[in-house]
Structure formats: structure tokens, C-alpha cells
Amino acid sequence: RAKQHQLGIGGNVRGCQKTPEDVKKKLQEAEDKKKAAKMAKSGEVNENPDDMAALQEISRIRSGKRQSEEETMLPPQKKNTTKGPLDAMYYKKPEDTIGKGKQTSINDAFDKDARAKCCQYIARFFYRNGIAFNVAHSKSFKLMIEAICNYGAHLKPPSYHELRVPMLKEELRLTHEMLESNRKEQAKYGCSIMSDGWTDTKGRTLINFLVNCPAGTMFVKSVDASAYMKTGQKLYELLDSFVEEVGESNVVQLVTDNGSNYVLAGKHLQLSRPKIFWTPCAAHCLDLMLEDIGKIPRVDKVIKKGISIVGFIYNHSLVLNLMREKLESELVRNGVTRFATTFLTLQRLHNLKAKIRTMFTSEEWSKLNASKESKGKKIAAIVLQVSFWDDVAFALRAMGPLVKVLRLVDNEKKPAMGSIYQAMVEAKENIMNNFNNNESKYKQVIDIVERRWSIQLHHPLHAVGHYLNPKYFYSNPLIENDGKLLDGLYACIDKLSASAEVVDEIRGELAKYRMGEDHFGRSAAVRQREKIAAAEWWKRYGANTPNLQLLAIKILSLTCSSSRCERNWSAFEHIYSKKRNRLEHQKLQDLVFIKYNQNLKERYDSDDVIDPVVLDNEIDSSNEWLLGDEVEAQPDLVFDGDDLSWLDVDIASGAAKPTINTRKQVALQQKKAATPAPRPPQHSASSSRTNPKRKAVKAATVVIDEFDGGTYVGDGDDDEEDEVHDEEESSGGGSDDEEDLNFNDS
Which homologous superfamily is 174-280+568-605 in? Predict the structure, then answer.
């Protein structure tokens, strides 16, 4: 008050009229210096005059006033922006107001211009601070903008200290509050501990620990386990300590990858804590199956060729531009695992094969320098090979049913424990059907699946989940005679029951479930056996069998995969490995905890999560994407309504070896036939085709003579009908020369 009185700056006291001007000037300088120091300490900066002018321009544009109008007006008085208790009471939460929009008004044109100027400041913030563009898709970014708008003008931004200490503590509290429902579900129905290790750029081995329950997945912590990963015993001690932290009574299973150290640690854990199961990650097991299938020579060859095609296109900017113009799509599709990505990319190639072929026979392609390079010629030759597309179809038929199961186990909202057993049975059946139940064609693939399934993936929890799923139990009258399922059922009852009395009660309650009695037999329960999730079905109709109901909900709510651990690797490394980050360890853990759990919650709550539990409607095996049938496959036509096929282009362009006899070849065969010596077996077309008609085929800009007709050599599988194709397979495949087989994976 004394300063205000002497300076005469108003406030709650009248200004002094007797203060000398030189004293008032010194007092004002001291006051300004003090304010500047205070602003610097709080992280505020003096406004750039140009920026202030721009901000005033935005305000002027939004008001719809012309510059000439403003010049004739009195200088605007600064608004009173002081906010009191009532302002906080009526503050609108951004979650409630975002997306509601506003009515169209006469000022929309002015708003558009003002928005452009305002957004330029937001863009500049992104550019100057190295923020990734995809942050603009983040829900939290949109909520931040909405919150600023709801506050109004002159919002004082948070300071460095506020962001680092009090606001971080508050966000941590809110995150724990958000996860309270998860903890209640863990105590009620049990949970799965998910663990997965990875190595960061500094060579440290880190393990992420997450807990999954019916309410979603919750990140708990990451541990530098470099000293624990060397032996199974050390790893067991780490896992055991985490089980103790979560609470043994809450844990039903521990899900890890299939490394030998995890296998040993899991076995030790089951011995020391007999009420807990160790389960290998189903996504990892399925990826190993896909990897083994990828080692089959025919599949391995087509994967390498596919990588060559995609790599060549994406590493030549002009070719990439042509591809995007012709295909109107990208070629690479990312999956949850490495070999899922391989499958999805091959699938994309197959779906776009007509456009890809057209692209590599177009005039635009022939004008590019890349088309004249040896690498470009090899890629074009592969694309025009019928045998290459047959091999793509073969790979999709072998891998497709397993990718379908991979999508099932990777589901966020509906746990797959009650479905994975049936999904694997159907996957094997679909693989056989894809090859027309010809054992010689599918045997190698099925052997791979059986080996991995029996050794690593088949588990008592999978069996009991299948048994307690009403969709499968009541539709299969033979299920009660399946010894493997019953072994798994009784093992789980004994392991997860609190006492022998509970075991006896559950076995007694099983009779009602088997016979469909009580609530199980109600018309609504019967109708919903296949319509709702199995765990939800038990919640609605299992009340009169309380012990069996609790067991069923526990098991049917379990996850089969720890793949959600893997999704968080990059986020953790971004925070943990930043050289500029000097936060102490606890603040670092708090940041990771907040980021992981809020991302997991947002993903779980999103409406566009794939729901692959309905197995019949997701991917109807590979045949859903593949055109034609293996037995009755016909060459694809270049143009609808014409008889010119891509097989003709294949032969005419020299991409493949000729599958018909030229006149010279026919003459040589006739000469050999006239000699008494036995003729070696031929893999060429029949000698009855001695005088085929000629026709011209235009490949790119070159007209090449070729013979009309010829035998169709590829239908997506190896059999006696594909003699020429088989010969090419044995010598290296397709029409490639030996040097063409060694492509760099560019």
C-alpha cells in the first residue's frame, strides 16, 4: 500500500501528490526490475512486439472489424481477467465440451482467417520443439486446446517448476485414481501378470511388468534386469518378487515369452507358488509358427522376392510416386509381430497384383531411368511371372489361418482364453481346406503347427477355457469324452480352489452346467450362448453355481498374450534414454507410469478396437482374399472382355521360361523321336501343338511375337499338373536365372 501510495498507481489507496518526480522515477524503476525478475523466475518471457501485434490482429479479425474502423476508435481498455471462486465453479471441463462445435454465423469467414493465424503458432510450437506430427492425433492434445479455449484470454501457462513437481504429482494421483477399478477387479476375479524383456540402445536389458484383468491392462513398472537375465534362477527371483508386490492371492497366471530362461523361471515359480500357472505368450508362439513356415523353401523364396519388390519401389522416389499414383495405396502393412507384417504385406501385394502388373507394363514406367537399370528389369520380370503370384498365394494359404488366431489373441477387450483352443483346431482345418485336403501339400505346414502347439502352446488353461465356454460346450456333444479337456479341467479346479471342500462343491455344480439345468437352461441363456462373451454369460446365468461361476469368470477373463508389453518399448526408451533428461529415478518412473497407463486406457476405451473373437466373420481363411480355386484356377486377364492373359505377357516379356514349344523345339523333338535311343522325360508342352497360331502381344512399348496358347503352369500349389512349374522350382524357381535369386533386401 505504501508503494502504491508513493507511486500513485492506484489500488486500495489514494496516490501521494507530494512525492518528487525523481523519487517516483527511481521507485518505478525498482518496481519494474522486481517484476522482471519475478517473471524470469516463473519461466515467463517478455512478449515480442511482432508477436503481440499478431495476437492483436487475430483478435481484430475474429471481431470482424476493419483496420480503418479500429483507427477511429479509442484505444481499448484492458479487460479485467481476474477470476474468482465462481469462475472455477462454472468452468467447463474440456471432456464435456470437445466436439460439440458451434452454429454457423456471419463471422465464419473472419474465424477461418483467425484460426489460420492461431494454428500457425501451434505449428511453430511443434516445429521449434521437435514434436512429432502424430501428436496432433492425440486425444490429450485436443483436450488441451479445448481447455485453453474454455478458460478464455490471458491464460498464464504453467511454469517449468509447476510441470516438473506439483502438476506431475497431481497427474500421478489422477492416474492412480483412474486405475482404481482395475485393482478392484484384480481382487475380485484375479489377474494375469505380463512380462517381457527387451534391450535398449544402450545395451541394457529392461523388463516391462503389466497386470491384465477384466477392466483392462495396467502398467506397473519397468526394471533394469541386465543382471537377472543370465540365469533362470535370477529371473525367477525377480518374477517372484513382483508376484509378491501384486499379491499372490490376486494372481492366476504369469505370461512371458518362450525363452529358455523364462521357461526355467516359470517352472520354479509354479513349484514355489502352486496356485499360480505359468503360460507362454500365445502371440510369440504363433509368430514362431509363422517363422518356421517362412523357412519352407517356396515361402522363403517368395518372401525374399516380395521384399525386393517393395524395397526397390520405396527406395526410388520416382517409382514410389508412380506406385502411389497407380495403386492409390501403400504396399507395407504393419502387424503386431514381424511375420504378421510379412503376411499382411504379401496379402496387400496379392490384392493389388493387377494394378502392380499394369504399373510395370505402363508407358510411365518405361520412361523412368529405374526401368532401364538391371535391378529394375529384374523387379519387373518378377512382377510379370505367373509363378511369383502362385507362390504368393501358396504363402497366404499356409499362413492366413494362423494370422487369424494371432488377431484373436491380440484382442484388447475380449480375452481369448475361452477361444484359443477352438481357434487352433479351426486353423489346422482351414490350412487343410486351403490345400483341398491333399496331405502331400499341407503336411509340412501342419507338422510345424503341431510341433509348436503340443510343446509350447497347448496348456491346461486353454483346455478348461474351451470346456467352460458355452458356445463350444453345448454345440459339441462329444466334448465330455475328450480326455485332454477333462484333464485340464480337473487340474485347474484342484489348482485354483481354496480348499478341498470347494473342489467338491465345484464338481457337484458341474452337473448342472453339463445338463443345462437351472439358469443355464433358460431361453435367454440358450440364445446368448454364442452372442455374448463367455465370462459375461457366466456372470448373468451362473449365480446358482457360485463356486463354478467364480472359477469360470476367472479363467475366461484371462489374456493369452503379453504382446501389449511390446507395444510400449518405444515409449519407454523415448523417456528413459533421452540424454537431456536429468530427472531423478522416481520422477522417471512416474512419467513412465503416467504415459503407459493413460495410453493403455485410451486404447482400451476406443471404439475402433478390432474384435476378432467371432472367428467365423473375421478372416474366412486365405480363400477370402484369393481369387480363383486351386483346381480350376485360370490365368488372369489383362483387360476384361479380352482373351489376353498375364500368362501371355509373362511369356512374351521373357519373364518366365517358355511353356510351349517353338518350331525349332518341335523339330528337335521329332528328330529325337525318330532315333532308337530312349528319349529322356520332357517337361514341355505336348507335341500335338506343332502349329500354334501366332499373335502379337504388346508388353510395355515393345511388340514381341509369341505363340497363342500354351499350358497354364501355376495354380498356387505343387502337384503333378504343374510339371513345368515343378521343374523350375527344383532349379531355383520361376523364370529367374541363378543370378536373379540373390536380391539385396534394399
Answer: ATPase, nucleotide binding domain (3.30.420.40)
